[in-house]
Amino acid sequence: MPPPRSPLSRLFTVLLAGLLAGLALAAAALPANLLLGYAATSAVGSYAALPEALRTPTTPQRSYLYANDGKTLITTFYDVNRTDVPLAEIAPVMREAIVAAEDRRFYSHGGTDLRGIARALVANVTGGGTEQGGSTLTMQYVRNVLKTDPNRTAEERAAATEQTVGRKLQEIRYATALEQRLSKDEILNRYLNIAYFGSGAYGIAAASQRYFAKSPAELTLPEAALLAGLVQSPDAYSPIDGDADAALARRAYVLDAMAATGRITAEQATAAQAEKVTLRPTQQPNGCTAVADGHDDWGFFCDYLRQWWLTQPAFGETVAEREQALRRGGYTVVTSLDPKLQQTAQEQATAVYGYDDKRALPIAAVQPGTGRVLAMAVNRHYGLDANPDGQTNHPNTVNPLISGGGGVDGYQAGSTFKLFTMLAALENGKQLATGFDAPSRLPTRYAAEGEASCGGKWCPANANPQWMDGYRTMWDGFGRSVNTYFVWLSEQVGPAKVVEMAQRLGITFRAEADAAFARDNAANWGSFTLGVAATTPLDLANAYATVAAEGTYCTPLPVVSVTAADGDKVDVGEPSCRRVLDADVARAATDAARCPVGQQTTYGQCDGGTATAVDTIVGRPVAGKTGSSEGAATETFVGFTPQVAVAGIAANPDDPGDAVGSAVQAKVITAVARTIRAAVDGQPVRDFTPPSRELAGEVHRPAPQPTPTPSPQETLPPDVLRWLNRARG
């Protein structure tokens, strides 16, 4: 209901009505061009003086997120459900229906239909029936733009719909100015893209999808007439959540109007009126909790993309502006998500733990050389649905369990961090053949007390002395995950260099205790090589991807391309990469990383591994590393080929003290290996580049070793591990 008008406003309305009524009577005796000339000289302003929104439309539009195939829709983001389409993609019958319904003389007036305005004003002032608007399509377009322009204040937007003479005169001026510059088709196209059709659908593209699940080019005559009839009173007439009978009555009016104007025949109008309305209501997804049906696991990737988006200056100077750009900018985003790989990763994660299990297996896959994130899976539903009593984070959560942030620090990844020690040593002059007679326990220079102390010094131990002790090089030390060898190697180069290497490869310390230790006491963080700092599968996969790319680090990237509403590419889709390691150093580390997964190095130096099943599962050149944290609280495996790096960490996100147990390690290895296999399926087999002999060093064939005990555990003895956890602080 319009607000009450003051006596003065009503007086002006009466006077204007009289004036326009006189003009309407005079119009019968004057040529049409003379009448239009009068309107132009008496009421119009210049096109240049129009508000920017009328000259360059900035109507909010929803943004689309697609998978890396550019076709599979992940979700959309919007404040207003709208997508602009060119006039050529709107069925001709829809264009004719809206003209017949709203402005029969659209193609003959100059923006203002004086007879229609006069008739409406007289009827409204004298109370002669239903209130009428008398606005042309051009005037309605002006009003719609001004009331939705995001660059105007709330007061200015509200003023665009006020029932005042001043507002009506402004519409007349603006409409006539637009008609002097724009063609009728341009105005009609703009109108159809901004009009509200009810049930949350703005613009004909959204309305076609909302009511009939089809594009506007596919609309039939009865469908077009129904939609055209809605714009007069969208919420009241909506057949979905309004008055369906009123919608049908309005459709009949539109069909009669189309027949009266010769757009269709009377017979066509009668046949269309008799046709039953078949609605196919569809709701456009909005945001990460509304991803495609059956794919709520995509929500974790979607949320990661949104967080990335909010850091990109290309979308605005502030976080608020970037958020608004995502929801109103009409972007087409082709993401890096590989739906098939995501499905495999999700199947593997849920094969280890079910959705309702308190423990989780988050898995991330990254493309070396680009940093593009290909999959992010975990045995959780991404959503806000309530969980059963006592289950704080399962089966539903929106916490970033795979990527970290938002209160998620990550999980200890155990011996996977030995890679950073090996890289630091290689970079600082050590060779792969660097030997050390690794003892069962190794006294270090770091002060300690209690069970893990040897004469007041920290004394790390090998979990399986029979299998791990003895003369080791980087090759078999890494393959067998010998703790005392890598603690010794860390001492040789200095723990600070190991910590710096991890950070250089993208390991982020989200836990405050880890960040403080790295910042203030890295030189004494001897236990860092054993993976006591928290990390995430995404960080870990990308760090190993850097080695797979022979030392080229790429910032994790969730998109392939971003296209603005005007068709221009936004410069955010290209990888951001830089060399952080000498290529030969990365190749040498990769050579040693062939040992854990049951393959052989260039120089034949592998003689045992902790994840030998990977070779059989992947069936092509592959490298990787296992990791177990204190008391088997977490179990980790990260593997890579030249084309993909995948990491998975089994943990309890809600209770770090709840150990997943060493028995799950084999399942984690299998899950990650099968994900790698799916990622490279159909791709050419690529081998790793061998390291130089200079960096390999003086190689030798290993002496026969005692028969390995099955499935060697990497965890330290419980007493040592308890002390180690306390020592972190």
Polypeptide structure, described:
The chain is of the alpha+beta class. Helices cover 41% and strands 9% of the residues. The strands form 7 sheets. The protein has a 5-stranded antiparallel sheet with strand order 5-4-19-18-17, sandwiched between helices. A 4-stranded mixed sheet has the order 2-1-3-15. A hairpin with a 6-residue loop joins strand 17 (623-628) and strand 18. The longest helix is centred in the N-terminal third of the chain and has 21 residues, at 7-27. Residues 1-44, 128-132 and 703-729 have low confidence and may be disordered.
Largest sheet geometry: 5 strands, antiparallel
Number of strands: 19
Mean pLDDT: 87
From the N-terminal CA to the C-terminal CA, the straight-line distance is 67 Å
Number of helices: 29
Which strand order does the major sheet show? 5-4-19-18-17
**Class of secondary structure makeup:** alpha+beta
Detail the poorly predicted runs.
1-44, 128-132, 703-729
Strand content: 5-15%
Approximately how much helix is present in the residues?
Answer: 40-55%
Compute the CA-based radius of gyration.
Answer: 35 Å
Summarize the structure.
The chain has about 725 residues and is of the alpha+beta class. It is built from 29 helices and 19 strands. Mean pLDDT is about 85; it is low at about 1-45, about 130 and about 705-729.
Secondary-structure map with pairings?
Blueprint lengths: L6 H21 L4 H12 L8 H4 L7 E4 L6 E5 L14 H11 L11 H13 L10 H12 L5 H6 L5 H17 L2 H11 L9 H9 L8 H10 L3 H4 L6 H17 L5 H9 L23 H12 L9 H10 L3 E4 L3 H14 L10 E4 L6 E5 L3 E2 L13 E2 L13 E2 L5 H10 L8 E3 L14 E2 L2 E2 L6 H4 L1 E3 L1 H6 L3 H11 L1 H10 L7 H9 L13 E2 L1 H12 L3 E3 L4 E5 L13 E3 L3 H11 L19 H6 L4 E6 L6 E6 L4 E6 L14 H16 L12 H4 L21 H10 L2
Parallel strand pairs: 1-3, 6-7
Antiparallel strand pairs: 1-2, 3-15, 4-5, 4-19, 8-13, 9-12, 10-11, 14-16, 17-18, 18-19
Helix pairs in contact: 1-5, 4-11, 4-13, 6-8, 6-9, 11-13, 13-14, 17-27, 18-21, 18-22, 18-25
